[in-house]
Write a structure and sequence with these properties.
Blueprint: H1 55-58, E1 60-65, E2 70-74, H2 77-92, H3 95-103, H4 108-111, H5 116-132, H6 138-157, H7 172-177, H8 185-195, E3 215-221, E4 232-240, E5 245-252, E6 256-263, E7 272-274, E8 278-283, E9 290-296, E10 304-307, E11 310-313, E12 315-325, E13 328-339, E14 342-347, E15 351-357, H9 365-374, H10 378-385, E16 394-399, E17 404-408, E18 425-426, E19 445-447, E20 453-456, H11 486-495, H12 503-510, H13 516-530, H14 536-547, H15 559-572, E21 579-581, E22 593-595, H16 598-616, H17 623-626, E23 627-631, E24 634-637, E25 651-655, E26 661-667, E27 669-674, E28 680-685, H18 702-706, E29 711-712, H19 717-722, E30 724-728
Parallel strand pairs: 2-5, 9-18, 23-26
Antiparallel strand pairs: 1-2, 1-30, 3-4, 3-20, 4-26, 4-27, 5-6, 6-7, 7-8, 8-16, 9-15, 10-11, 12-13, 13-14, 14-15, 16-17, 17-19, 21-22, 23-24, 25-26, 27-28, 28-29
Length: 737
């Protein structure tokens, strides 16, 4: 077969009850979108290997290299998206259409009653996608059309391998809806919490506290800090191993050449990676992007509220969804209320609680990601960021011109009132509410700082670089307060040096498993334990901790005992006394320090010894014996610890049936790139590019990860050809080299 010419290189459970009551006013029904099809004139299901492939399939070639990384070479953005959808479907099968159905309010028809709350929001979102799709730039529309067509074509060709509910009727608007938002269920929970008294039960549907292992690390090093004299970028998000990071390389000669991570189910989501000239990494942040306002209802009109002394209409949209009930399809309806300011979260007899948020109704998100991927220099990349459709996340950037750049990206309202910490603010007039957002170019940011490094590990921006701290007092009250938790401190200890490193040395440094918490409090703990008349066995356990090197490596002994002790101590100690010296912004990377509650420290140690014996059979078990990566038949030891213990190599664990720990979140996708004349990179995706146990790419990089290794990225055409495993077009029979 000839090759194409190439170039070198949330939906959470809803709180408000739904019902089957008749609708008062139905949501306007947009025209039914025509499903995206690869070629309307030809059959969708040619014989496998047949030359009768649809035009979009003929216009894209998929080259898989080691570990199943797809390199998609296409004639257009539409055919590239077609190929991206095809490979995602190959590797994740029905998980892709399931995500799309959920984003569009059609999942309950398959999943049943429990999916109804999410489908209500999905229906609203899909309606918005239909509304804004015609305004998308042509190239964004092409990508969405191509992706929908790729999903549909795969379903047609492989119908016998997929469940019956996976039908080839997806439209580009269905794909667009996945990245849009018109409702914020978390704001409902926050509002109700603000209105409850202490001790009230938690309401169903509230968003729980974030998993402590959810977050990210990012580094950038300037040329002065690298042996090659070229900038280096490290991307290291921490999410669940089921979060669907998908490693891929997409090339459209003359238009796009991007390597990195996409998210399962669509072409636009949280994207990070690099092109020929630049790259970026994201880390979660938490900007106050919304405000709830309490507004008086119009006593003479139930469908109006009072603003600036005049009635303002409230729109009621009735949403109907179908859901599987036993063996038949039932329907449910729910009314949503909207104002020109934003959605109504809650109503009382005389008051509306309305969410005014920068995070809703942002139609340009796909356009922003595409322009970032296409950018050729820092100013072009910044221009894409100024779209501000991506309303959160820290961005750490590096490029081939030697620049490194950081921005605490957020769309923060300029408030005419004091921040309310989630409580509603009463408003009578427009001037009582925010109307503008903080300019992007005035957000906290650093360009080429002293010391030649940037780092972020999910804390606020002020200590991104210790040589040039960002002044908290330069920003309004609704910006976050300063905080540097243990993982961020660990990050700073690793990079706030004058060390000059190769890309390989940066990779090695990134895998640091030192428990910074142990560095801060272990000596105090040992002294306290020695002073409380330990038994002979306790003395041996104390000595074990004394001999331990404070790292969570697979063969370390003492680490598992310390982990159990720390969990118990910080659960039972008075939070105000847990540390002898609390964290201080005046000493941000050496505090907290010491132990403040001796009695609880001793009690927790005795408990931890007993617990370790009961769970593991001994209190001196190696870390890797009870901390495992398990998937299918795979069961291997792994190093790395949860973020609260201060490891930079973050691994979050769940308790398994045998009461040992199974890795489930944290480090999984790591990408390190050096911007030489041709980018040079390493990567690892712990759970692999497929969630199907029969796939050769299921958890095929887990041992590599456990060994602190990464694979060489194939980016140039020569590199791809040297590492080529198979080449094919969508719909053709795959032939492995």
């Amino acid at each position: 077969m000839g090759r194409l010419p190439s170039i070198p290189a949330f939906l959470g459970l809803l709180l408000v009850l739904w019902s089957c009551a008749p609708a008062r006013e139905e949501i306007p029904s947009p025209p039914t979108p025509t499903p995206a099809t690869p070629t309307p004139e030809e059959p969708l299901t040619p014989e496998i290997g047949s030359p009768e492939l649809p035009p979009l399939a003929q216009a894209v070639e998929i080259r898989r290299t080691s570990y199943g990384v797809p390199h998609i070479l296409a004639e257009s953005l539409e055919s590239a998206a077609f190929g991206l959808a095809w490979v995602m479907m190959e590797d994740y099968r029905e998980d892709v259409p399931a995500q799309i159905l959920g984003a569009n309010g059609r999942w309950a028809a398959t999943a049943g009653r429990t999916a109804v709350p999410g489908d209500f929001i999905g229906k609203l979102t899909h309606h918005y996608a239909m509304e804004v799709f015609p305004d998308f730039p042509t190239d964004v529309q092409d990508i969405l059309r191509g992706f929908a067509a790729g999903v549909n074509y795969f379903i047609e060709v492989h119908a016998d391998e997929l469940p019956e509910w996976a039908t080839p009727d997806f439209s580009p608007q269905d794909i667009a809806a996945r990245d849009l938002s018109v409702w914020n269920q978390g704001a409902v929970g926050a509002l109700l919490r603000s209105r409850r008294g202490p001790g009230d039960a938690q309401e169903v549907g509230e968003v729980q506290e974030q998993d402590p292992a959810v977050g990210s690390n990012a580094w950038a090093f300037a040329p002065e800090r690298t042996r090659s004299g070229r900038a280096i970028l490290v991307r290291n998000p921490h999410l669940s191993y089921t979060s669907g990071y998908y490693e891929a390389h997409v090339t459209v000669p003359g238009t796009l050449n991007f390597y990195g991570d996409f998210r399962l189910g669509g072409p636009f989501a949280i994207i990070g990676g690099f092109n020929d000239r630049l790259g970026w990494s994201t880390t979660n942040n938490s900007g106050a992007s919304s405000q709830v306002y309490s507004l008086l209802k119009d006593p003479s009109d139930p469908d109006a509220f009072l603003l600036d002394g005049a009635p303002t209409p409230i729109e009621t949209r009735t949403v109907e969804v179908g859901f599987l009930d036993s063996d038949s399809l039932a329907t449910a309806t729910r009314d949503f209320r909207f104002t020109p300011l934003g959605p109504v979260l809650l109503e009382t007899a005389d008051t509306l609680f309305v969410l005014k948020s920068t995070g809703l109704r942002q139609p340009r998100i796909g356009e922003q990601w595409l322009r970032m991927m296409q950018a050729g220099n820092l100013e072009e990349w910044k221009e894409a960021m100024r779209i501000q459709a991506k309303v959160s996340s820290n961005f750490t950037y590096a490029d081939a011109d030697g620049n490194i750049f950081y921005v605490w990206n957020a769309t923060i309202p300029i408030l005419p009132h004091q921040p309310s910490d989630g409580a509603p603010v009463f408003a009578l007039n427009t001037e009582d509410m925010w109307t503008d957002v903080f300019p992007w170019d005035s957000l906290p940011q650093l360009l080429n700082p002293k010391g030649g490094y940037l780092q972020n590990a999910n804390d606020p921006p002020y200590f991104t670089n210790l040589n040039e701290p960002i002044r908290r007092e330069d920003y309004p009250a609704n910006f976050p307060e300063a905080r540097v938790r243990l993982r961020s401190q660990h990050s700073l200890q690793l990079v706030h040096t004058d060390r000059v490193m190769s890309l390989e040395e940066v990779v090695e440094l990134k895998h640091s498993m030192r428990m910074l918490l142990a560095d801060r409090i272990k000596d105090d703990l040992l002294g306290i334990l020695d002073s409380h008349h330990p038994t002979a066995e306790e003395s041996r356990a104390i000595q074990l901790l004394a001999d331990w090197d404070n790292r969570a490596t697979r063969d370390s002994r003492g680490s598992s005992l310390f982990e159990l002790w720390a969990g118990q101590y910080f659960q039972t100690a008075d939070p105000g006394r847990s540390y002898l010296v609390p964290w201080s912004p005046q000493d941000p990377v050496r505090t907290p320090l010491g132990l403040g509650d001796e009695e609880k420290a001793v009690e927790a140690f005795r408990w931890a010894m007993d617990e370790a014996v009961e769970r593991f059979g001994a209190w001196d078990v190696p870390w890797g014996e009870v901390h495992r990566i398990r998937a299918g038949e795979l069961d291997i030891p792994v190093g790395g610890c949860p973020t609260h213990l201060g490891c930079f190599r973050v691994v979050g664990y769940g308790v398994d049936e045998d009461r040992s720990y199974r890795a489930r979140t944290g480090d999984a996708w790591v990408l390190a790139v050096e911007f030489d004349e041709i980018p040079r990179a390493y990567s690892v995706l712990l759970y692999g590019n497929s969630n199907r146990e029969e796939s050769p790419y299921f958890y095929d990089q887990a041992e590599m990860f456990a060994n602190n290794s990464m694979k060489t990225v194939a980016y140039t055409e020569d590199q791809i050809q040297r590492d080529l495993v198979e080449t094919y077009r969508p719909g053709e029979e795959r032939e492995r080299n």
